[in-house]
Design a protein that fits this description.
Layout: H1 3-37, H2 45-61, H3 73-93, H4 96-103, H5 112-117, H6 120-129, H7 132-146, H8 149-157, H9 159-181, H10 195-215, H11 223-226, H12 235-266
């Protein structure tokens, strides 16, 4: 990594740290205010999931460990997998939109930004972005495109493109897991039976890419040939390890939620669930907190 990229990485790290702290404060403020009026809608495990997701984002793109991706393809692969399959779903499990909304002033829904969100074109765009077909292609395209040699090498030689790559992996992870987690304000009636198939189909392009990296027999990303390999390992062996890791990781990352959702679908209808029905979620009325019934953080 060049001195310019080191300086850019240091600035990026500080910016990410500041953004994560601010977002954590806003989230916890909204969670605290919601919990004051309806505790069942704001269980303690939600902020734990959200903060764990944030910690993983910091660890792989802003901590000193982040620089390892320029030396080791396996570290680069771990970075992408953590962003897409761990950090993104954990953050969504924290119900960030609901908590952020309840952190806003009470008059937000009547203010100009609030009215803008109610416009039909904006709502149509939201439905498209939350559509499982779009979410599946967003996650799959991000993985395939950034592992092509030209975009990959560009991201490793340019700080701006490298940061954009990291952001796009995290954003693609949020899109991909949205239909699976279905955080507020997702449509509750979305067919859950299709989600296991959604996850299974997502493993196929990942399996093809990881198999190619593991068995092609040549180094695909030439920049790792001249880099200082950890543990005195060769670039080809590093690539094989990265491909095997992706193959195994993605299989379990998608298989476990698919099995869990299948069990939920097959369970009796009266089995208690871990989620509160959408109709019981206090989204709009939670802003009555500002009437003095609850304290701000």
């Amino acid at each position: 990594m060049s001195p310019d990229m080191h300086a850019s990485a240091a600035l990026w790290s500080v910016s990410i740290e500041a953004a994560l702290v601010v977002l954590a404060f806003i989230y916890l403020r909204g969670w605290y205010r919601l919990r004051k009026i309806r505790q069942i809608a704001a269980p303690a495990w939600r902020p734990s999931a959200f903060l764990c997701g944030q910690l993983m984002v910091y660890a792989v793109i802003a901590s000193p460990l982040a620089s390892l991706d320029h030396q080791w393809l396996t570290a680069h692969m771990i970075q992408h997998l953590v962003l897409m399959t761990l950090a993104a779903p954990l953050i969504l499990l924290g119900e960030p939109v609901l908590m952020f909304r309840n952190s806003l002033p009470a008059h937000f829904d009547t203010a100009e930004p609030g009215r803008l969100l109610q416009h039909a074109p904006i709502r149509r765009i939201g439905r498209v972005l939350a559509n499982p077909v779009f979410c599946w292609f967003a996650g799959t395209a991000c993985i395939i495109v950034w592992h092509l040699p030209v975009p990959f090498n560009l991201s490793m030689r340019s700080s701006a493109w490298h940061h954009f790559e990291q952001i796009s992996f995290f954003a693609a992870g949020l899109f991909f897991w949205w239909p699976v987690v279905q955080p507020w304000p997702s449509i509750a009636s979305r067919e859950r039976w299709s989600i296991p198939m959604y996850l299974f189909l997502a493993t196929l392009p990942c399996d093809a890419l990881s198999a190619f990296l593991a068995f092609c027999g040549r180094v695909v990303y030439l920049m790792y040939v001249s880099s200082n390999q950890l543990l005195n390992d060769s670039a080809l062996r590093d690539q094989e390890l990265a491909g095997a890791l992706m193959w195994t990781w993605v299989t379990f990352a998608y298989l476990i939620p698919a099995v869990f959702i299948s069990m939920q679908i097959l369970a009796p209808a009266n089995t208690p669930g871990g989620r509160l029905p959408r109709a019981a979620w206090p989204a709009p009325e939670a802003h009555s907190l500002n009437s003095g019934a609850a304290e701000d953080l």
